[in-house]
Design a protein that fits this description.
The chain has helices at 2-19, 138-145, 149-154, and strands at residues 35-45, 55-65, 70-79, 84-87, 94-113, 120-136, 161-177, 180-188, 205-214. It is mainly beta. The chain has a single domain (24-214), classed as Porin, CATH 2.40.160. An 8-stranded antiparallel β-barrel has the order 1-2-3-5-6-7-8-9.
Length: 215
């Protein structure tokens, strides 16, 4: 009974070790790290610099290994810009951008090894996802103020803090040394395409740079 218990425990240890390693020569030979945490800044480019300052950026990605040195990631990247006033393009309203923007999406990393031990590598990243930038919709507030008392009783109060929603596309690369590295990513998020509140003068381009840790 004791021998069976020892063998069973040893089998569990070997199984845990096996699941922690990717033995395919085309991927990682070292223990695979499933979680990436990023920290840096997002720098607006062009017209977006009139709406957004250089902002703190944090990200979290869950990694899934694929074939041919491809890593799929699911996660988010969030910015915390300062509040900034802007005018509606089709109405005489002035409001402000809120201190919350970013993306939720999928990222694909292509790995290029630098050394034979596979502790150092470059990663080329492609991102697609849902982009958002929150603002205070004062036009919706004004419309709500015109509702009758009976309508307010019958219907739920609408949300006034809402996002400009868009498709977020990005390309970038990372330099990795074991579990640490640096990243840079070009972002394209055309916030104006699904709303009549802003136009393309709002801006859409930015670059995110910083450090990351894998665990």
């Amino acid at each position: 009974m004791i021998l069976f218990t020892v063998l069973s425990f040893r089998s569990l240890i070997l199984l845990a070790q096996a699941t922690d390693f990717i033995v395919n020569q085309d991927t990682y030979a070292a223990p695979f790290k499933q979680v990436v945490v990023e920290g840096g800044v997002t720098i607006p480019i062009g017209k977006l610099s009139n709406m957004m300052n250089v902002s703190p950026n944090v990200g979290f990605w869950y990694r899934i290994p694929k074939e041919n040195n491809i890593i799929q990631n699911i996660g988010f990247s969030i910015n915390f810009p300062k509040s900034q006033n802007f005018n509606y393009v089709n109405d005489n309203y002035t409001t402000e951008i809120k201190s919350f923007s970013g993306l939720l999406g999928v990222k694909m990393d292509k790995l290029f090894w630098i050394n034979e031990q596979k502790h150092r590598n470059l990663e080329w990243s492609s991102v697609i996802g849902y982009g958002f930038y929150f603002f205070d919709d004062v036009r919706a507030r004004a419309e709500y103020a015109t509702w009758s008392a009976s309508k307010k009783d019958q219907e739920d109060k609408p949300a006034f803090i809402k996002p400009f929603s868009t498709v977020h596309l990005a390309q970038g690369f990372k330099i990795n040394l074991k579990n640490f590295g640096i990243y840079t990513r070009y972002n394209y998020a055309p916030y104006s395409i699904f709303t009549d509140i802003i136009d393309n003068n709002f801006g859409a381009h930015s670059v995110s740079v910083g450090f990351y840790y894998r665990q």
